[in-house]
Amino acid sequence: MRALCWHGKGDVRVDTVPDPKIEHPRDAIIRITACAICGSDLHLFDGYQPTMESGDILGHENMGVVIELGSEVTNLKVGDRVVVPFTISCGQCWFCQKGLFSLCDRTNPNAEMAIKAMGHSPAGLFGFSHMLGGYSGGQAEYLRVPMADVGPIKVPDNLTDEQALFLSDIFPTGYMAAENAQIKDGDTVAVWGCGPVGQFAIRAARMMGAGRMIAIDEVPERLAMAEAGGAETIDFSKCDVYDELMVRTKGRGPDSCIDAVGCEAAGHGAVDAVMDKAKAAVGLATDRVHVLREAIFSCRKGGTISVPGVYVGMGDKLPIGAAMNKGLTFKMGQTHVQAYTQPLLKIIEAGKIDPSFVVTHTTSLEDAPEMYQKFRDKEDGVIKVVLRPGG
Ligand SMILES: NC(=O)c1ccc[n+]([C@@H]2O[C@H](COP(=O)([O-])OP(=O)(O)OC[C@H]3O[C@@H](n4cnc5c(N)ncnc54)[C@H](O)[C@@H]3O)[C@@H](O)[C@H]2O)c1
Ligand SMILES: [Zn+2]
Ligand SMILES: [Zn+2]
Fold first, then answer.
1. Distance from the CA of 65 to the center of ligand 3, in angstroms?
2. How far apart, in whole angstroms, are the C-alpha atoms of residue 144 and residue 126?
3. Is the pLDDT reported for residue 285 higher than 80?
4. Where is the Alcohol dehydrogenase-like C-terminal domain (predicted)?
5. Which of 197, 225, 307, 377 to mutate to test the pocket of ligand 1 (most atoms within 8 A of CB)?
6. Cβ < 5 A residues, ion ligand 2
7. What is the pTM of this model?
8. Residue 342's pLDDT band (boundaries 50, 70, 90)?
9. Dmax over Cα atoms in the chain, in whole Å?
């Protein structure tokens, strides 16, 4: 089959590789009809995520048609159209039983690598490094889906691929980010990053009763999309974000701050950001924590910081004193996707949101390398790319 493979920093290619096979009775094989490139893929593309190997197949936002089933998957049939959570979760362990699906204890065959780096291992993820399971992703013609009796959900016929696909990741991720922000009616919520995750966080915050959403980015079309979702905007390349947030909230600061940027934050010459970049370049730190610092400084006393943005390792100079003395609450994590797929499908079916609003480009799998570059460099107005293998 054809598949988008990682070959090193900035080097992804569509290669011909062996088709996946059923390896376990709980597996399914699906023929991918649509998959997407995520901001998390950019961290792999840019070489931030350790334990990638040449030839790894990327892609964790996947949907398609079931073509083969292991003997223990009884809730799906060949021919079913399904969307697949990016988190691989057993549904049975202590964590899965509590709905903490991204923390599943049983799906990372390389758990010892993760334990060395983090103390414990989270769940295995599709297409996301060997430390997180070494599972092949779905930017390909076919995908092996482990734990297929727990993860994939059937898609109603009346929804298009573009309306259902983002149940695999970014809609639940934006939604959980807003939940983690502990929004109360009328609250002011600041969202750093107007990529796809920020866009869904803005819309979820509104659904949860936020009075004001203030969206921060520098890319005009992304700020425009945030505005269309009901947010006020701040262009961080044109002003000091802390100063501007204080003006807009009369000095109190936003009640909740959502970091939907993560480890590759841009800093435009801010001293801390220049230091982060230099340290990351020589391996003294791995993450650029500029946005997290700004969020801690800006958040109102007693407020909440929600972090859907991905961090991979060590960040330097986090103002822990400010966070402690201001009494901030932190909530973060990879999304517990399986906990959100059914409820959010209902929200889509009720017409409360059409997730396809975020798609700017639909193209073939063969174009994926070019689209990775354009998505990273924010060229051609790319906000969200959907790939159609075989289409
Ligand atoms: N927690 C999860 O389960 C989960 C799931 C999906 C994605 N993510 C993560 O969420 C983050 C966003 O994903 P995305 O797909 O929207 O990515 P993206 O790369 O499209 O968006 C990131 C945005 O942040 C903006 N940005 C950069 N520096 C900034 C700064 N200093 N201030 C404000 N904005 C800044 C960029 O201009 C860009 O628009 C990534 O870190 C991704 O890995 C997490
Ligand atoms: Zn993702
Ligand atoms: Zn589990």
1. 25
2. 10
3. no
4. 196-279
5. 197
6. 38, 40, 169
7. 0.97
8. very high
9. 61
